[in-house]
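thread: overnight batch results

M.L. [08:02]
morning all. the overnight job finished for the chain we discussed friday. pasting input first so we're all looking at the same thing
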Amino acid sequence: MTSLFKKHKRTPKELALKLANALNTLKDSGDTKDQESCGKYLADMRAIMYGDGEHPPDPTLQSQLTEAVHAADGLLASVVIHLPKLFFETRKDAAAVFNALVRHPLEPDERLPFIAELESRPDVVERCLTGSELGDQTVGNDNTALTYGTMLREMARYEPLCRRIVQSPGFAKMFEYMQAASFEIASDAAASFREILTRHKALISEYFESNHVAFFGAYNQMLEKGNYVTRRQSLKLLSELLLDRANLSSMLRYIGDVENLCLMMNLLRDEARSIQFEAFHVFKVFVANPQKPTAVIAILKKNREKLIGYLANFQNDREDEQFAEEKAMLTRLLEQMGDDDAAQ
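M.L. [08:03]
and the structure it wrote out:
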């Protein structure tokens, strides 16, 4: 028997207006009823953007919701700012709606309306960056930080927002978050860090040029004092960044610094084999550099015999042909440094 009382489905415009009102009230009250209302509206928005499990999303409704939220000035920013006050499950819906709206274009010109809006809201970008600090202060603990992490990675996909991210004060705190006591928060921060630094090569190259000393100084501290997982992941990322042609200028500056060389030589002797292996891939760049500064040459010559002996027995059980070839190449280069002395 068909019910005479079918549930009224709110239009996208109604949802946007009601959510804006509920968030505005929640801001002052923190009342459970307001939290429930926000949860209901965000769940309906998620169903519009992703489908409800039984029906696929309707492109017309998606566009209408995008337009309605954009017209409700500051609504998307309000979702981000008031996220910690929402229920545990509602935060997931909020992030899903946020991410879907950011990537959804407005007809007919296909522009992404929320990119410029979020770019003009440094407080929103900062909140997503520093969300890890809220992990232990809100109901649900790490859930809040992880939800902000998904929003941050979505924003990092777009160059104007990624630029805003690296220019924000909170970006420097990423080094702290990657060393958080919570494994989930640390891993999530590391995922965001990688996304930010590898998505837009020209932007990040420019960032490295302007912030080389501060950035790589903090990076080296993390490599020295971080936990095992953080150091392993960070060493792997560092080798990728240095070997990326877009970062050639920063790479030459990094491998021209004796302190960086000494750090890698120490990490080569780390008790963890995986740390040694990742450090090797950074160390090889110092040795293979055809234009080594005098100070770097001096350190390598001073430790030449020890390095050759160390490489001869370095992880020989690893079945990796490229790795074996690279070890042989480094050994030859170190031996040639001795031959140069003999020729003189």
